[in-house]
Design goal:
This protein is mainly alpha-helical. 56% of the residues lie in helices and 10% in strands.
Amino acid sequence: MKLEDLLLGVLLHRPSTGYDLKKFMDTAGRFLRANTQMSQVYRSLTRMQDLGWVSCSVSSRAGAQDAKTYRVTPEGTAVFLDWLTGPYQPAPRLDDPELTARLSFAGLMTTAQVVALLDVEIATRRAAAAVRDRDPVRALEPTPTINFDPALGGRVADFLQAKSAAALDAHIAARVALRASLIIRIAQTPTGGPQCAPSS
């Protein structure tokens, strides 16, 4: 997932200035990508403009620098939707920012596309749950060359294993619940809901 993917998604929700985009990345966007600098936002906007993915209009402001408002072009919309609905490979860690980002832009997908995304995530995490009892810490069978407290090591390893298992179970349960609510939506709307067609 690239910064451009996130910026296109935000701009499809609302045309914005570079400053507005940076403000988003510092607030709600920080859960999708950490520590985004203003220079990165403007560099991405310039690149996207060069590629024809965004256009901008300039508004004059008395006593201040002109404001550039960026909008997504039809080509940029196609690029964004290709990423949003394209193949998804879950990261090994549960806190996968790409899944969170794609779900954050779920309104730009059909319900069936969101369900398919959740299916991949749920299947991957269930596969991980099936082998989670293979504790990598205990599998080391330590033969330390310095002082080692096996009781302490074992107690902490048990804690970490239990915490990890509980987090994985909660993660799966939450996505299964979301999926179930979307299946009800599909049943009520045979087409799976309208495909959004954002204006550029």
